[in-house]
């Protein structure tokens, strides 16, 4: 691989025609890019294109000279050069792929959701010392695939299943947060732990994958604002309000299918507290997995833009995990983002799908709400079926090329690659800063909303054995009146 400074890769493989002059021109272009000098960058880029044309022409002449020679060794070298030349032409014959790689070299690709940490638990019980992420082949994601896919920033999901709710969800979530930290510590040359929009850009400049944390499922905070704040301090930057189960304060998407009854008819009062506290601390609200009513309520309640970290368009595939058109329009009004999911069942509502059908979701969202709300949310390593042409994280450039082939312009593509998510992230940070003077919300969820056999009532008012809350205030009032009357 030719690496031409720590930010921009130009060619995935060494080209036989690439000479020293071209390499110097590449470096000059990169210097201009890093300096932010647009005039110099434009000139350097034009010089590079000229240099590439001349290098290719010179290489072709060398081939012809070899073939014209009477020396059998030179003729054989000429045949080899032709083979290499045609191979490289074949690799570069798709101008949309070349253009995709160029755009991905200039703009960070940010993906909203990847479940590699869950695969570390599922396959290795989080024993990361037994795993080599540079060679593992039992996952959609490994470090070579990340580099080939030009994946510049990834929100890793700290996910634990719904059956941990009311049991050990918090402990298991903390262990998933821990393994994301340890992935970054074990592979510092590839991953950079990130907690801000600025960190994403810094990692991109260092040619590392910015690694952020999203907690997938409100059951992971066990209805505790203190736990929510603690997870933020550990680096969590979004919370998916539900997974595929209701929490005591928010309904999930299965309610819309009729397979689960609603618990809150959307968000409870405590659910609204959760949204407000997330706004205050600067944690993004993720609406993937929630019911349609929760989507609508949160969009009304949140002061900061929201995200769908891994959801697609309902109009294209009528699955309740996807986003209806009227919500897409509301997301645009609120300047949020929908990061398109690659799971076959959400792409085509069937077990099979292909890259073109994923692009259909991008096209539809753009048609309904414009390019400013679109992002990538592959859901790799969290699903069992992925589309043909998007078999793993190395395939992102092919999807970008497909969008370009369909007529997306450069600004639309770069918006979807990462500019939209960076804008949302910055807006969330601005809301946090504006609310910095507000005190943390320390009003707990009512005990009767979370009472179960695994939960104690410490800190709440006394509870009788049958579970009914007994308030001491009426008793004190009655005692005071009695004493007043008697004396």
TrEMBL record:
Q: Which major enzyme category is it?
A: hydrolase
Pfam families in alphabetical order: Peptidase_M19 (PF01244)
Q: Which UniProt keywords apply?
A: Cell membrane, Dipeptidase, Disulfide bond, Glycoprotein, GPI-anchor, Hydrolase, Lipid metabolism, Lipoprotein, Membrane, Metal-binding, Metalloprotease, Protease, Signal, Zinc
Check the record and name the SUPFAM superfamilies matching this protein. Metallo-dependent hydrolases (SSF51556)
Q: What is its EC number?
A: 3.4.13.19
Catalytic reactions on record = leukotriene D4 + H2O = leukotriene E4 + glycine; L-cystine-bis-glycine + 2 H2O = L-cystine + 2 glycine; an L-aminoacyl-L-amino acid + H2O = 2 an L-alpha-amino acid; a beta-lactam + H2O = a substituted beta-amino acid
Q: Where in the cell is it found?
A: Apical cell membrane; Membrane
Q: Which domain of life is it from?
A: Eukaryota
Name a biological process GO annotation. proteolysis
What cellular component terms from Gene Ontology apply here? apical plasma membrane; side of membrane
Q: Which GO terms describe its molecular function?
A: beta-lactamase activity; metal ion binding; metallodipeptidase activity
Q: What cofactor does its activity depend on?
A: Zn(2+)
Q: What is its main location?
A: membrane
Membrane topology listed for this record: Lipid-anchor; GPI-anchor
Q: How does it assemble?
A: Homodimer; disulfide-linked.
The UniProt entry's sequence similarity note says: Belongs to the metallo-dependent hydrolases superfamily. Peptidase M19 family.
Q: What does this protein do?
A: Independently of its dipeptidase activity, acts as an adhesion receptor for neutrophil recruitment from bloodstream into inflamed lungs and liver.
Write down what this protein is called: Dipeptidase
| Organism whose genome encodes this protein | Aldrovandia affinis
